[in-house]
Amino acid sequence: MSDGDSSDKDRGAPRRWAEGGPERLYVVTGGRNRPAERVALDLVALIVARGAPGPGAHPEQAAILRMCTNPLSVAEISAYLSLPASMVSVLVGDLIDGGQVEVRAPASAAALPQAAVLEAVIDGLSRI
Amino acid sequence: MRTGPPEEDTLSASTMAAVKVVIVGGFGVGKTTLVGSVSEIRPLTTEETMTQASVGVDELAGVESKTETTVAMDFGRISLNEELVLYLFGTPGQERFWFLWKGLFEGALGAVVLIDTRRLEVSFDVLGRLEERGVPFIVAVNTFPEAPKYPLEEIRAALDLPEPVPIVECDARDRADCRDTLLILMRYLYSLTVATTRER
Ligand SMILES: Nc1nc2c(ncn2[C@@H]2O[C@H](COP(=O)(O)OP(=O)(O)OP(=O)(O)O)[C@@H](O)[C@H]2O)c(=O)[nH]1
Ligand SMILES: [Mg+2]
């Protein structure tokens, strides 16, 4: 890694696996962190919690539910939890299965016509 | 455990969809600077563990060995309107990871290839790979004061860049410059979309 990358890291979250190591997370995700078994969520899929975490929720999933009262991308969840995006994808996948979160698909995956999306992007960028 | 975005970095509840753009370029070319210049949030870092089949003795022995590497990527965000948000991802400096990162280019609207005229050669490979994958891109020349100045058309020729692909100058530290670069990418993408629609 370059100097640039290490300075990026310094600005980032606390060290990885600070709380219990990857083994514990493996337990949390039931060891299903394999891409073939579930379609990975896009980095910019927006996650919105449908409610507060229940008493038995795993800490990571409870944290996701708490931070997603408003929409938040998988990439942002990954950054705030200091977890790889693929791991977040698995954790969120379980929340989707449990009906605890709603997913707002990326515009590119939605049925929106590309030209309309681009017009909106151009409009929005012109105003910043 | 971290608790999520600070109040001011919360997305509007009405946000319905997101789009993404990838900023690629070699070591220290200004990717993080560009993302930071236009982002409405302090840039964040996401990471991914990448598995690579390693080449060497093991391969000769017919045994495939795998190496795991954690790669970090910084990103920023621009809310475009009440319903749509744009994310900008800056690739890590090491090119060999750019295309290993599953889901980075998938679904991206397009890419900005940032280049430094002192190290044009690092861009050759990525331009080819983007073309191969059908990821539309523009080229932005980061105008470092120490770097030699060349006319853009000379750089276009050196990169063997097809005529319709825009090439622009951009100071990655300048917010307006970065916004304009993104606008040029979007207008180019729009022209491609309209052209495809007409062909049908
Ligand atoms: N003069 C000048 N300096 C710049 C410009 N863009 C970036 N820099 C400087 O160049 C250095 C590297 O910029 P970064 O934005 O970290 O580059 P990067 O592409 O993210 O680097 P890596 O992630 O390490 O590959 C920093 O010290 C920036 O301040 C520019 O347009 N002009
Ligand atoms: Mg960087």
TrEMBL record, chain A:
- On the tree of life, the source organism's domain of life is Bacteria
The protein's name is DUF742 domain-containing protein
